[in-house]
Structures are given as C-alpha cells and as structure tokens.
C-alpha cells in the first residue's frame, strides 16, 4: 500500500493543465502516493446541481490530503441558467465548492506564501517575502445571509441594537443582510498559527490586519485576541494595521512586512494584492489546512477560455505542491522542489506567456521536473 492517499481534484478550466504539469514533479520525486481522482466543479453543478458531490466528500474523509486545481463560480442567476433543463426551476442554489469544503472539513487556516523568486520579471520588488494567514471558515463567508430581510429578524436586531432603526424606511424586500460572524476560537487559531510560523522561521513580526475603528465587534475581537496571543511570543512584535492602510503600505513598503494575519474576507482581498507583488496569480499558492485534512490549491481562477490549451503558468500549482510535500513532512522532497522551481525561474529559459515567454504549461512542468 502507498504511504499516502491524495485526492486528485483538477476541477474546472485550466485546473487540469496545471495539475498535469505538477504531476511530472511528483512522479520524478517518486512520492509514495496513491492519487485518487475526485469529482468537483462546474461540470457536476450543471449535471447534478451539486459541484461537490457526496462521493467526493466520502473520498476526502479517507485521504491524507488533496490537491485541487481551479474552480469556476458565477453569480446566482447565471448559475441557474447553466443547469441541464431537467434540473432548472427546482430551487437549486449554487454555492462555491471550495468554500463548502473549507467549512465542512474545518480547514480553518488558509496559508498563502507570497515570495518574490529571484529572476522573476514580474516581481514588483525583489526580496519580497510575505506569508498571509487568512481565517478560512468564518466571517463574511459564514453564508448566513438574508434577502429579503425577514421582519421578525429585523425586530429582534432592533431590540438589541437601536442602529437598526435607521433602515426602517426600507421595505424588507429591499434590504440584504450578510452576517459577519467571527469567533474567539477562530481568531485565536489563526493568530496562533501565524505566530507559530513566525517563531519557526525566525520572522520578527506579525501584522494583524483588520478595521477595528469601524467594525468594532468582529475586527475588534480579532485585534484583542491578537494582543493576548502575542504575549506568548516574546521577541516577535505584533503590529496592528487597518486593511485600507495596509493595501497602501504593501504597495509602498512591501519589505516592511513578514507575516500577515487577518479574517476571511480581508484575507481574500489582501492575498490577491500580495500575489500581485510577486508575479500575479500565476504565483499564488495556498493551503487550506485543518486538523484532519488539508486541501492545497493555487488561487488563480479556472480561466475557462484557456482550458486545455496548456498556456497558463503552472508555477502557482508547483509551489502549492511544494507546500503539500512540506505539510506531509516530506521535507527533502519539498526542498528539492522549491530549489527546482527557483532555478527554473532564475534561469528564465522556460517561461509561459505571462512571464514574457512562449513555453507551454507542460514545458514549464518538464523543466522543473528535470531539475529534480
Ligand atoms: C480564493 C478565491 C475563493 C474565495 C473563491 C473562488 C470562492 O477567491 O480562494 O481566494 O473567495 O475564497
Ligand atoms: Mg480570492
């Protein structure tokens, strides 16, 4: 029996292209793994009204981790229109399978390293080395939303918070509400993870990014919890920055920052910004990490128009694969892959179009595997 069971989930669009490229390295490294294909994505929404079928959930309950390619998602109305005719008009509502996965398996930490590889022509500045910790299951992603906003809920809210009265003149069917739900446990976990990484890697600061001056309760909880947790890590400074200012500072002085920790929605936004500092989504890797399962995915979209063309940059997927190896404890293999990625970027001979080259996804995958 293989040492590891890994769910293999290319998903939509270019997911398959980039995963095929990463597989070349996994094979070259001779990772002792069984790869178990699992269905996820748009195809299964269209034909089964479920982009994350139960059979995939069952597979995920029995693997060590999963590699995931990319996902297509669309606004509500467009989703309905894409269903096969027999499924239309039955009240099926699309919800993002990756968000569901994160919640169903409590993949509470979203880890997003953003490093400027030397020689990458897309670097905003050389030397940038950021790690974003994004809380992954709560916040505005909780999915507790109302439209219309039921009168009885409105009355209860008004009883507990008079500010609600300001919206009295708007009829319920013209009020949309999304609850931002953050828990102390959620805050503590993500902040602890951020400090633990700082400690392990000798980083000197952790920046908590929120907006407690306005969003007093949820952002406030995050910042207060960060102050508590920070006490356990003498020698690592806690910096507090508002999300708006942080976007500005990251453009101005990206080198000042090291570990960034934030809630789900702000983390979604700021991690795209950080990705752009180091070459764009072609370099944006991530791990969704829980206690029992971890799902590794590049954070670029599915780019449907490029699907099957082997045009897009597989670097994000390769870096994602390196993260998976590290998480599995295969440190030698992880280091080897990291060095191979860095070498191919530095040499600059094999590059996809976004980096100014004309090589295919698989040629980049082959170049990396050849270094191993
Ligand atoms: C990400 C993506 C997802 C998110 C989408 C695809 C639901 O943007 O992983 O950053 O919002 O979390
Ligand atoms: Mg995102």
CATH superfamily of the largest domain: Isopropylmalate Dehydrogenase
Structural classification = alpha/beta
CATH topology of the largest domain: Isopropylmalate Dehydrogenase
Level of helix content? 25-40%
According to CATH, what is the class of the largest domain? Answer: Alpha Beta
**What is the strand content?**
15-25%
Could you characterize the architecture of this molecule?
- This protein is of the alpha/beta class and 372 residues long.
- It folds into three domains: 1-107 and 284-372, Isopropylmalate Dehydrogenase, CATH 3.40.718; 129-140 and 180-277, Rossmann fold; 145-178, no CATH class.
- Helix content is 40%, strand content 17%.
- It has helices spanning 15-28, 42-48, 54-60, 76-82, 97-104, 151-160, 184-201, 218-230, 243-252, 264-277, 315-327, 331-347, 361-370, and strands spanning 4-11, 33-37, 65-70, 109-115, 129-135, 145-146, 177-178, 205-210, 237-242, 259-262, 285-289, 294-298.
- The strands form two sheets. It has a ten-stranded mixed sheet with strand order 2-1-3-12-11-4-5-10-8-9, with helices on both faces.
- A hairpin with a 4-residue loop joins strand 11 and strand 12.
- Helix 11 (315-327) packs antiparallel against helix 12 and helix 12 packs across helix 13.
- The longest helix has 18 residues, at 184-201.
- The chain starts with a strand and ends with a helix.
- The model has no long low-confidence stretch (mean pLDDT 97).
């Amino acid at each position: 029996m293989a040492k590891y069971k890994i769910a293999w989930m290319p998903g939509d669009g270019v997911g398959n292209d980039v995963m095929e490229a990463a597989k070349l390295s996994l094979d070259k490294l001779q990772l002792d793994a069984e790869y178990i294909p699992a269905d996820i994505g748009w195809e299964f929404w269209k034909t089964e009204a479920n982009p994350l079928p139960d059979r995939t959930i069952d597979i995920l309950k029995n693997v060590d981790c999963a590699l995931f390619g990319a996902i297509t998602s669309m606004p509500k109305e467009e989703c309905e229109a894409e269903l096969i005719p027999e499924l239309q008009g039955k009240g099926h509502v699309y919800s993002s399978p990756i968000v569901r996965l994160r919640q169903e398996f409590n993949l509470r930490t979203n880890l997003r390293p953003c490093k400027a590889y030397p020689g990458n022509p897309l670097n905003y500045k050389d030397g940038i080395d950021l790690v974003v910790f994004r809380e992954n299951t709560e916040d505005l992603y909780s999915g507790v939303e109302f439209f219309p906003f039921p009168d009885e809920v409105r009355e209860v809210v008004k009883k507990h918070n008079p500010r609600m009265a300001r919206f009295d003149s708007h009829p319920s069917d013209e009020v949309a509400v999304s609850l931002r739900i953050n828990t102390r446990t959620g805050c503590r976990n993500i902040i602890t993870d951020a400090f633990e990484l700082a400690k392990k890697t000798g980083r000197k600061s952790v920046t908590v990014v929120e907006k407690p001056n306005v969003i007093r309760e949820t952002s406030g909880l995050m910042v207060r919890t960060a102050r508590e947790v920070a006490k356990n890590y003498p020698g690592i400074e806690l910096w507090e920055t508002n999300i708006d200012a942080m976007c500005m500072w990251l453009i101005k002085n990206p080198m000042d920052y090291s570990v960034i920790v934030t809630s789900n929605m702000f983390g979604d936004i700021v991690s795209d910004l950080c990705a752009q500092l180091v070459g764009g989504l072609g370099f944006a890797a991530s791990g969704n990490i829980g206690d029992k399962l971890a799902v590794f995915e590049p954070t670029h979209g599915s780019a449907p128009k490029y699907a099957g063309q082997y045009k897009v940059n597989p670097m994000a997927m390769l870096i994602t694969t390196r993260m998976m190896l590290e998480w599995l404890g295969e440190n030698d293999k992880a280091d080897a892959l990291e060095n191979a990625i860095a070498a191919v970027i530095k040499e600059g001979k094999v590059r996809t179009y976004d980096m100014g080259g004309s090589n295919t996804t698989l040629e980049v995958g082959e170049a990396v595997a050849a270094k191993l």
